[in-house]
Amino acid sequence: MKKHLFLMLTLVVATFAFVSCSNDDDDNQYNSDIVGTWKITEVKTSQSGSYIDWPFKTTYASFKSDGTYYGSGYFGNGSGTWSIKGNTVNTYVGGELYASYEIISVTSTTSELKMSMDGESIWIKCKKE
Hints:
By secondary structure, the chain is mostly beta strands. The chain is 12% helix and 48% strand.
């Protein structure tokens, strides 16, 4: 499970590793909400599960308005690009899709996301720093 959390949350750290940003699309209502530095605060492993405090090394992801990102923490350090369409944020590393995040909710200071990678998903809550 730690391996899967590592891989999925690397998305949040590298997690927010994204290639090809198309932030100019009118239907991308979440663009301005996603931009900023986010810290993972809670995690759960199933939709019906309960959130627990993030039990690993402090993990951050910074999404910039130019479509680049930088992540650091539990999954290591990394950078890449990001794109968003509707309520789905896709991250890319080396031009390959790395992970996808479905936005469940987002405000100017908090977010809840379903992170999917390699056919598996986890749910995370983040706080904007």
